[in-house]
Specification:
Order of helices and strands: EEEHEEHHHHHHHH
CATH superfamily of the largest domain: 5' to 3' exonuclease, C-terminal subdomain
Shape: globular
Number of strands: 5
CATH class of the largest domain: Mainly Alpha
CATH architecture of the largest domain: Orthogonal Bundle
CATH topology of the largest domain: DNA polymerase, domain 1
Strand order of the largest sheet: 3-2-1-4-5
Number of helices: 9
Largest sheet: 5 strands, antiparallel
Structural class: alpha+beta
Radius of gyration: 18 Å
Strand content: 15-25%
Number of domains: 3
Distance between the termini: 35 Å
Length: 202
């Protein structure tokens, strides 16, 4: 995955920006959190990116922070929330506002997002709450902000994958903790090894 892009800001459009990186112009779709804090044209800019590929569609999304990008990835993993809806949510609410709204069951705040009604907000809260609580448990188990390197993100993604398969937060974290050299493994390998630990716990 393209983790980030740094280059010259050459154009700003309603739903994204164009970054010139070594002579290649990348169109990056962004929430308003990026658009509202851009430097002047021809300045250097950096965004944390996510490449979305599905059914012949290949779009590049960019975010101001890793946390925002990770939340975008979590949102598009929720049934009925596609990339456009996720961008709309992140354009309406900050990461902190959304997290607080979810954990406090604040439907009204989430419905401020265009296109998200009461039922959609309720579903989002139900599906996102466990994921956010999992992230808090990951912080406690694998370390805080200072350890959010690639290995931390790998563990985070693998834990969420295990939970999506029906395992509890505790089972997912325990299995990952038992894998030897987990910090050195790619996501696919770590997931396979963690599943082995769950299947053969002794």
């Amino acid at each position: 995955m393209i983790s980030f892009i740094r280059g010259e800001l050459t154009n700003v459009e309603a739903n994204g920006i164009v970054i010139d990186h070594q002579g290649l112009g990348f169109f990056v779709m962004t929430p308003t959190t990026v658009l509202e804090h851009l430097p002047p044209l021809q300045s250097q800019v950096q965004v944390y990116t996510y490449l979305y590929i599905k059914e012949g569609v290949m779009d590049l999304y960019g975010f101001a922070t890793r946390q925002e990008r990770n939340l975008f990835q979590t949102l598009i993993g929720i049934n009925g929330i596609g990339p456009k809806a996720a961008i709309a949510i992140l354009s309406t609410l900050s990461v902190e506002q959304l997290q607080y709204a979810v954990l406090s069951d604040d439907v009204k705040t989430i419905t401020k997002t265009p296109g998200i009604g009461t039922k959609g907000a309720q579903r989002l809260i139900i599906e996102l709450k466990d994921k956010l609580q999992l992230e808090e448990e990951l912080e406690a188990t694998f370390g805080g902000e200072e350890s959010k390197d690639s290995s931390h993100l790998t563990k985070n993604n693998v834990a969420m994958a295990l939970v999506s398969l029906g395992y509890s937060n505790a089972e997912a974290l325990r299995a990952i903790s038992k894998v030897k050299n987990a910090d050195e493994l790619i996501e696919e390998t770590l997931l396979k090894e963690a599943l082995k630990k769950i299947m053969t716990p002794l």
